[in-house]
Amino acid sequence: MEQTRRQTASQSQKLMIFVLTMALYGLATLFTELIPKFQVGIVEFSVEYFLFIPLTLAMLFDPMSAALGAATGELVFSEIMLGQFGGLGELEKFLTVTIGVYIAGRMVKNPKNRKMVGIAAMTGVVLQLLMGTIVDIMKVQFAVEDFEAVAGLPESVFATEGFAFLNDALFSGILFCLLPTLYLVPMLYGKIEPLLGMSPRTEKTWMGGISGKVVLGSVVAFAAAAGAELLATSGTSLIDWEADWAESGTAMAVGMTVAAAVAVIIIAVLRKTAGSMKEERA
Amino acid sequence: MKKLSENIMDKFTIDFLRTQVLKNAYGNDDTVIASLDPRILLVWYLFFAIVPWFVQDVYFLMGCFLLVMVTTRLARVAGLVLFLFGLGVFSQTGYLFLASLLFGGNLSTAVPLLVLTLKVATVSLASVTVFSGLDPDRLSNGLMWYGCPERLSFSISYAYRVLPMLMEEFQNILLAYRMRGNPPPHDTVPQKIRYLCYQVKIIMQAFYPLMLNTAKRSRTTVEALEIKGYRYAAVNKDVKKMKLAALRVTYNDLMFLAVSFLWVAVSALVSSIM
Q: Is A98's Cβ below 8 Å from some Cβ in B?
């Protein structure tokens, strides 16, 4: 059995990795959502990223399951449970987290090699943040009408977004991603895998480096993310439609109001009769 | 000042967070919103999540905003969530307004930003209504009815069940670390910073045992699921049908839709007259 087999996991092991990452990262994002941020001058100190959890797990286990688990965990725990679900826009965060974690996980050949682990962790964080920043800038540009016309707005968007990116990458990236990952990966290596019934990743069994396919897939996914976010923010055809509808004006709105009022009355009557019928039967 | 910060720190314990989250999830299943059919509510949510983005009219947006404010009130959402909502809206647009003032903008910047704020607020309040007003099980059933992947509805149900346990476990690990540890003194400012770093370090280190424990637990969970044939049941049509048989649309749901529709129509009317 000493073949150079790739580190693959059976379906149920993939589910285990998924559940593990989801629960842990979900818990962590819930905390970050709840912990207030505090500012010193213009530098914001926030425990923005517990991204070290999925990064660590992606370096030790199957990267795809870990990445998807992390993204789902964030979605479910911090967005849906706290009722902060932003609709289509959440797809952007989902995909950028998945890409960042997946690429970082694929980069590590030997989890004992601290240098590589560090480089991979930083790459994952910076990738995720950079994609988020690009989408954010595009979002404001599309959402606010006459973007260029508003005095001081374009510069302020670039400045705040750029600054937030640098701040997050340097502060959260190093303190909350790089250091914990460097600490956790070698410590967990060889200890956590048997708990899921797997053998640890070695140079023989890793999945191979970043190939063209991975890069292409990531670019497509990022395009989808940006598209979803922009679709959530803007949409030229629908705006045109809206304008037409507004022009046809008051008559249409009156019609809609009357129709709605009639619907309310009919349903109220139906509900009352249904209620009284039930009472008669009882 | 010292007293104030102590007061805030007292309130912000893990226990407080846990009760708030649990209250948000399970504490309000007797409200008007919670008794509605999840499928109807999701359709309703879809409207308020998409339409405001495409409308530029202040009156119409204001109308939508008032409506979702009323529904949020009806859903009796936990205070912490509303606080976070306020913070989120401010950090998205209020921050931008202050920054644009800094770069020589004036009050004319406020009008497009008011539109943006109303949009963001409407969309997020609609999601607060639906996603924290509904019971997690009903919510995941509703999502499943619309053909969302089984993985997602499983994740939602699982998250709500496992979260209290995870929080308790994390707290226990933290307490164990504290009991064994020897924290540095925190009287002067540099010492306080060192104390903060020490705290953060402990939180990070606590994830090591937590990861191992959760790994064991997730293996148990998945194996238990496998015994019940979860992976086959998840894709089986008959199982899904049985699971969703309890969903029923009543007149209350239709009434809710009709009243919302009436309100939106009226605000459209107002905006076309103005």
A: no
How many structural domains are present in chain B? 2
Range of the domain at B26: 14-148+248-274
Helix (H) or strand (E) holding B197: helix B189-227
Q: Which residue has the higher pLDDT, A238 or A55?
A: A55
Q: Which residues pair with A45 in a beta bridge?
A: A38
Q: What is the pLDDT of residues A222-246, one digit of tens each?
A: 777 777 766 665 544 444 444 444 4
Q: Do B268 and B134 sit in the same domain of this protein?
A: yes
**What ipTM does the predicted assembly reach?**
0.72
Give tens-digit pLDDT for A102-111: 988 888 888 8
Tell me which of A7-11, A90-94, A153-157 is least confident: A7-11
Architecture of domain A11-234: Orthogonal Bundle (1.10)
Q: What is the rounded CA–CA span in Å between residue A36 and residue A228?
A: 29
Cα–Cα distance, B139 to B38 (Å, whole number): 6
The residue with tokens 């903008």 is: B105
Distances (CA, A) of B238 to A124, B94, B141, B243, B244: 42, 50, 15, 9, 10
Q: Tell me what the pLDDT averaged over chain A comes to.
A: 75
A150, closest residue in chain B (CA to CA)? B109
A259 close contact with B: CB closer than 8 A: yes
